[in-house]
């Protein structure tokens, strides 16, 4: 099924169309007037060294950029490289860094090898749309937007090739996050959670994760069945045309041919609807499943931060005990060393507490922002999806209304 | 989802056979707990009744002989049909009476027509297909077993779905058996058949035992020979243009109807799968709506409701396509086969006639048994001409019936598709209005 990019309502959506009003209503009054488009996938090179280059176009009125509109060529590993840089800088201090799209060896190999079939076109389109959504989410983040690496990615014509993207792909980061989570879970020391908010939120995200996965599975099944329906409708249309040909009553024969035509058009409709099912609904859900994994990762980082603080406190205690021992044993040189170490660890404890408070504060803000975005996202996308369903029904009505007189004309 | 019904056949009341059947036979393996809410299911009776019996149009229901199936009961491994007759003919002892018949007895009746030489020149109404609830029963049973593993809402939803499916299959099989009887009753010659009258009136079991192995083998060989014959016989070009055209037409038509019927089936089933997905999506959205902490939960609940409603409509679309398209094509697959069988019988009698001619020539040449050969030849000639004459009329009637049935069903299909699309559209638009108003 070749995605109908040319059909105006059915292109994989830029889901962040916002009106002037919406933009002005942004929290903190910041105006996020920036729009990213990823387009024109182009194959560069041959054989296994070939890659897809995508055009990344930025339209903005923000003063931090040199121009109002500019574009660069980027390849998939560039995106992964960007994500890895951002993740390294911001994840461990509590920022929810949007995950990059997944790597796919199978999909990419087909494209490299030059298989010009609908599944490769589909794969490229899926990836293009995912990259676009990824960038849009990233620039919407007020802190990340200020990051020089991000600006370099968007603006500079030449970008140093990202190395080790294998380890740093979206999946790689997730694996890291998950490993950290496992490590935390295996800790026998239970974190002394003084803030019920965090426990509540974690549980909520856990539930949300489960529900989204379930919903995603159902929507994927729908996409599959709709594609099946499309194929079966096309087969039936052909069969009905044949039947019409062999029918020897003229009017009935004509009506059957008309029925075949209607079914053919309906097959097209099903294809377009399946396209919407996938790009509008299903991909949103899979994006959020991965986003929530990032959110969970951030909570785990906070736990690790607390762990560090707690460890520092324990160590400080030990140092104090050591000092007391030294006092009793009356070893003046060791006492001085102990006092130095105590000062060192007192500082570490203070830092640990500060870090912990900072990450907690950041997470609270981030989660608030995330939830707001989530609500907006889902509302926008679901409404868009319902509108696609409306279109389908309207078309169906047109087709059957045209057919009805033909059926009645059978004399 | 009650739809207005212009008329309702008198014998199908709300406490109709369909619901009685469900009560009677669904409970043994579902348990009392599932019986609640049985009456709350969507009312399928009104619309589907009109559609189900109308595969064949122009069934002159004249006062002389009216046959219908007034009740039906599905038991574990068989279905019992109550065949109800109203007649002013002197052949019957009473004017109105009912008997209980099972599927095998319908088959017996059909086969007796086929084997009757006198009816060689008629299209024998095709036998109704065997009632097959196995798949549906299995699903219901699985549901009962899996009750513990799903939420109450999911369970109730699935139960309603499966019950509706079971009910639809049941009503279809009733309709198929009824159409067969009505076709026989409408046929000027077949309606007078003695076996038919016995079938209608004799209120004991007809003791039509299932065929034993030997008989089944005989049947198998008979059919093989017949198809081999069919190949030979159809090689003979017909002198009569009408029959030549009919033969070419029917052979091709039958094959294409077969193909169209299979493809239509697959299409309808895909449609149903997609509708089922809506069901699950609705449930997931509901769960999301009840668990979410933000203000999006109202949103999810509204959309969940939409999916539930739209799913019902999609299921109806699938069911109506099944009824108006798939069933129509299946029926004409069987009828066109019956018409082919008629042509085959005519060809056979032509071959017999030609053989008798040759035998006569031989006898005259040898001047031996001439009288015998002459009589035999005359008999064959008469038989052939009789079959040809009635066959011609039968085939013309077949075309008329076919055109009328297709017209009716295609019109109804288009009307129903429109109705459902408009219903869907309205649901979607009103939901969107609410959602857009909220955000």
UniProtKB/TrEMBL annotation, chain A:
PROSITE patterns recorded: PX (PS50195)
Described function? Involved in several stages of intracellular trafficking. Interacts with membranes containing phosphatidylinositol 3-phosphate (PtdIns(3P)) or phosphatidylinositol 3,5-bisphosphate (PtdIns(3,5)P2). Acts in part as component of the retromer membrane-deforming SNX-BAR subcomplex. The SNX-BAR retromer mediates retrograde transport of cargo proteins from endosomes to the trans-Golgi network (TGN) and is involved in endosome-to-plasma membrane transport for cargo protein recycling.
Any keyword Ribonucleoprotein? no
Keyword annotations: Acetylation, Cell projection, Coiled coil, Endosome, Lipid-binding, Membrane, Phosphoprotein, Protein transport, Transport
In terms of domain of life, where is this protein from? Answer: Eukaryota
Q: Which residues form a coiled coil?
A: 328-362
Q: What are the residue boundaries of the PX domain, all occurrences included?
A: 32-161
> What family does the database annotate?
Belongs to the sorting nexin family.
What is this protein's name? Sorting nexin-2
Q: Name one GO biological process term.
A: early endosome to Golgi transport
Q: Name one cellular component (GO) term.
A: cytosol
The secretion signal range is none
Write out the annotated subcellular location.
Answer: Cell projection, Lamellipodium; Early endosome membrane
Which Gene3D superfamilies does this entry report, sorted A to Z? Arfaptin homology (AH) domain/BAR domain, Phox-like domain
KW Membrane (keyword) present: yes
Q: Taxonomy-wise, where does this protein's organism fall, top ranks first?
A: Eukaryota, Metazoa, Chordata, Craniata, Vertebrata
Which organism was this protein described from?
Phascolarctos cinereus
Q: Pfam families in the record, alphabetically?
A: PX (PF00787), Vps5 (PF09325)
UniProtKB/TrEMBL annotation, chain B:
Name all PX domain ranges. 59-206
| Highest taxon, organism lineage | Eukaryota
Q: Mind listing the GO molecular function terms for this protein?
A: dynactin binding; phosphatidylinositol binding; protein homodimerization activity
Query: What keywords appear on the UniProt entry?
Result: Protein transport, Transport
Q: Which InterPro entries match?
A: AH/BAR_dom_sf, BAR_SNX6, PX_dom, PX_dom_sf, PX_SNX6, SNX5/SNX6/SNX32, Vps5_C
Per the UniProt entry, the signal peptide is none
Q: Which Gene3D superfamilies does the UniProt entry name for this protein?
A: Arfaptin homology (AH) domain/BAR domain, Phox-like domain
- Record field: transmembrane: none
Q: Name one GO cellular component term.
A: tubular endosome
The Swiss-Prot or TrEMBL record describes its family as follows: Belongs to the sorting nexin family.
**Protein purpose:** Involved in several stages of intracellular trafficking.
- Name this polypeptide is given: Sorting nexin
Species the sequence originates in: Phascolarctos cinereus (Koala)
Q: Lineage of the source organism? A: Eukaryota, Metazoa, Chordata, Craniata, Vertebrata
Coding gene?
SNX6
């Amino acid at each position: 099924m070749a995605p109908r990019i040319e059909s105006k309502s059915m292109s994989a959506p830029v889901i962040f169309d916002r009106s002037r009003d919406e933009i002005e209503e942004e929290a903190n009054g910041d105006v996020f007037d920036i729009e990213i488009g990823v387009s024109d996938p182009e194959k560069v090179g041959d054989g296994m060294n070939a890659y897809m280059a995508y055009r990344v176009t930025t339209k903005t009125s923000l003063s931090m950029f040199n121009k109002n509109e500019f574009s660069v060529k980027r390849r998939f590993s560039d995106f992964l490289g960007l994500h890895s840089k951002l993740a390294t800088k911001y994840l461990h201090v509590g920022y929810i860094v949007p995950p990059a799209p997944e790597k796919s060896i199978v999909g990419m190999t087909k494209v490299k090898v030059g298989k010009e079939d609908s599944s490769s076109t589909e794969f490229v389109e899926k990836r293009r749309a995912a990259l676009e959504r990824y960038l849009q989410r990233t620039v919407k983040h007020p802190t990340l937007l200020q990051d020089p690496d991000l600006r370099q990615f968007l603006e500079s014509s030449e970008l140093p090739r990202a190395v080790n993207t294998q380890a740093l792909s979206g999946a790689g980061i997730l694996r890291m996050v998950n490993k950290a989570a496992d490590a935390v879970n295996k800790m026998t020391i239970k974190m002394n959670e003084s803030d019920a908010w965090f426990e509540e939120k974690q549980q909520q995200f856990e539930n949300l994760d489960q529900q989204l996965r379930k919903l995603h599975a159902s929507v994927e099944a729908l996409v599959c069945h709709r594609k099946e329906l499309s194929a079966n409708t096309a087969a039936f249309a052909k069969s009905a045309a044949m039947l019409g040909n062999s029918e020897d009553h003229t009017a009935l024969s004509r009506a059957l041919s008309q029925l075949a035509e209607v079914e053919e058009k309906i097959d097209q409709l099903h294809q377009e609807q399946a396209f919407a099912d996938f790009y509008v609904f299903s991909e949103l859900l899979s994006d959020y499943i991965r986003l929530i994994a990032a959110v969970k990762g951030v909570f785990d980082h906070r736990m690790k931060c607390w762990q560090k603080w707690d460890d520092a406190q324990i160590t400080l205690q030990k140092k104090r005990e050591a000092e007391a021992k030294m006092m009793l044993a009356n070893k003046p040189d060791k006492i001085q060393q102990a006092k130095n170490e105590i000062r060192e660890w007192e500082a570490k404890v203070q830092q640990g507490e500060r870090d912990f408070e900072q990450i907690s504060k950041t997470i609270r803000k981030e989660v608030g922002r995330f939830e707001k975005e989530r609500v907006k996202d889902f509302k926008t996308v679901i409404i868009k999806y319902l509108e696609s369903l409306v279109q389908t029904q309207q078309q169906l009505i047109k087709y059957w209304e045209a057919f009805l007189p033909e059926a009645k004309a059978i004399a | 989802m009650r739809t207005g019904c212009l008329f309702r056949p008198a014998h199908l009341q709300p406490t109709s056979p369909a619901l009685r059947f469900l009560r009677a036979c669904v409970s043994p393996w579902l348990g009392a707990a599932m019986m609640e809410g049985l009456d709350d299911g969507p009312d399928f009776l009104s619309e589907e009744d009109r559609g189900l019996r109308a595969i064949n149009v122009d069934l002159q229901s004249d006062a002389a002989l009216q046959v219908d199936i007034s009740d039906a009961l599905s038991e574990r491994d068989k279905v019992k049909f109550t065949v109800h007759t109203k007649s002013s003919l002197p052949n019957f002892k009473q004017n109105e009476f009912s008997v209980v018949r099972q599927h095998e007895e319908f088959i017996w009746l059909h086969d007796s027509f086929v084997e009757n030489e006198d009816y060689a020149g008629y299209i024998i109404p095709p036998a109704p297909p065997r009632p097959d609830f196995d798949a549906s029963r299995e699903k219901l049973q699985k549901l009962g077993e899996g009750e513990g593993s799903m939420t109450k809402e999911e369970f109730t939803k699935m139960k309603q779905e499966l019950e509706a499916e079971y009910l639809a299959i049941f009503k279809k099989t009733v309709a198929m058996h009824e159409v067969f009887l009505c076709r026989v009753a409408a046929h000027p010659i077949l309606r007078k058949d003695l076996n038919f009258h016995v079938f209608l009136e004799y209120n004991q079991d007809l003791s039509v035992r299932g065929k034993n192995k030997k008989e089944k083998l005989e049947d198998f060989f008979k059919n093989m020979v017949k198809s081999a014959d069919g190949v030979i016989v159809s090689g003979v070009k017909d002198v009569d243009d009408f029959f030549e055209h009919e033969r070419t037409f029917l052979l091709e038509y039958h094959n294409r109807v077969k193909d169209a019927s299979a493809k239509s089936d697959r299409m309808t089933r895909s449609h149903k799968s997609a509708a089922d997905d809506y069901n699950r999506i609705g449930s997931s959205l509901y769960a999301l709506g009840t668990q979410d902490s933000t203000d999006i939960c109202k949103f999810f609940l509204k959309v969940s409701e939409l999916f539930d409603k739209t799913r019902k409509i999609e299921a109806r679309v699938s069911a109506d396509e099944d009824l108006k398209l798939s069933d129509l094509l299946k029926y004409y697959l069987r009828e066109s086969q019956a018409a082919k069988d008629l042509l085959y019988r005519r060809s056979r009698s032509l071959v017999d006639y030609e053989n008798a001619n040759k035998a006569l020539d031989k006898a005259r040449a040898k001047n031996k048994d001439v009288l015998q050969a002459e009589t035999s030849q005359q008999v064959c000639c008469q038989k052939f001409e009789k079959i040809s004459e009635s066959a011609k009329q039968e085939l013309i009637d077949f075309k008329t019936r076919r055109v009328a049935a297709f017209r009716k069903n295609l019109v109804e299909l288009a009307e129903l598709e429109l109705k459902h699309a408009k219903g869907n559209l309205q649901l979607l638009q009103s939901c969107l209005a609410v959602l857009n108003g909220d955000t």
